[in-house]
Design a protein that fits this description.
Blueprint: H1 3-26, E1 52-53, E2 68-71, E3 79-81, E4 84-85, E5 89-91, E6 94-96, E7 103-105, E8 112-119, E9 134-138, E10 142-146, E11 171-172, E12 181-188, E13 191-193, E14 196-199, E15 202-207, E16 210-217, E17 239-240, E18 248-256
Parallel strand pairs: 1-11
Antiparallel strand pairs: 2-18, 3-4, 3-7, 5-6, 6-18, 7-17, 8-12, 8-18, 9-10, 9-17, 12-15, 13-14, 15-16
Length: 263
């Protein structure tokens, strides 16, 4: 065996030790955030594997007869911004984020089936979390991330269809920028008794017809760079996030699935 062959494994090991941290440092995410329950991954961990890519087919589903139509392309009467009128721009059958703040439903909901369609800007600007970012906050607390995740690396628990800061999707079913996508969400509200959590919120999600979250429990209400926690609450509006990117939404309808009446 020549000296060159003998020392080749050591050379390769040295290259891995030297360059691997540099490569990992270039991945979006963090290395100094707290560990999620279980201790394997940190919140927004830059080393957490990316979901594999699967081509989805968006489901442009008409509302069932018993659904409450929240946005049919005409107006935002079912939404508000703070204590005032929702100010996002409505045109051509969709509503677009415009920098005026989040909007939330005027009605409160608990467990539900929720359908909505969304599109990130066709003209790509920014990268990672700065590209086509928005979110669906169930009960105003539990976020299903909206993001342009088509050939756009982002920390895996922050990409499209992730439970933000908690759980990546099973696969990346994202469509190209500017194309309409669909979320079909089946959400079970958390249960509390005397201020204590009895059962966590759970969610199943189809992204463009592909199962991406399968009855996954939320760790708690969504947080950035911190471990989520619970605090007792009742039915609440769901919210669409204004993250500064002109994301579009259309065909939003909901079917409450719990036995208690919403208000």
């Amino acid at each position: 065996m020549s000296l060159r062959i003998q020392f080749l494994p050591r050379l390769l090991l040295l290259l891995v030790v030297v360059f691997c941290p540099v490569i990992m440092a270039q991945r979006p995410g963090y290395t100094d955030t707290p560990f999620l329950p279980g201790g394997k991954w940190r919140v927004h961990d830059s080393a957490r594997p990316y979901p594999r890519i699967v081509q989805g087919t968006p489901l442009f589903t008409a509302p069932p007869k018993d659904a409450t139509v929240l946005f049919d392309g005409k107006n935002l009467d079912s939404f508000a911004s703070g204590n005032g009128k929702a100010k996002w721009v409505v045109r051509n059958g969709y509503v677009e984020v415009n920098g005026t703040g989040d909007i939330g439903t005027r009605q409160s909901f608990g467990s539900c089936q929720l359908h909505l369609e969304w599109a990130t800007p066709a003209k790509v600007k920014g990268k990672s979390q700065g590209r086509g970012n928005s979110g669906v906050f169930l009960m105003g607390r539990y976020e299903l991330q909206v993001l342009d995740s088509y050939k756009n690396p982002a920390y895996s628990d922050g990409q499209a269809a992730s439970l933000y800061g908690q759980q990546p999707p099973l696969v990346n079913a994202s469509m190209p920028p500017g194309e309409w996508q669909s979320y079909d969400i089946f959400f079970t509200a958390p249960k509390f008794s005397l201020g204590k959590l009895q059962a966590p919120a759970r969610i199943t999600v189809l992204h463009n017809g592909i199962l991406v979250q399968n009855n996954v429990a939320f760790i708690g209400a969504t947080k950035h760079r911190a471990v989520a926690t619970y605090a007792e609450h009742g039915a609440a509006p769901f919210r669409l996030q204004d993250h500064g990117n002109p994301v579009r939404y259309r065909n939003i309808w909901i079917r409450p699935t719990d036995t208690k009446k919403t208000r």
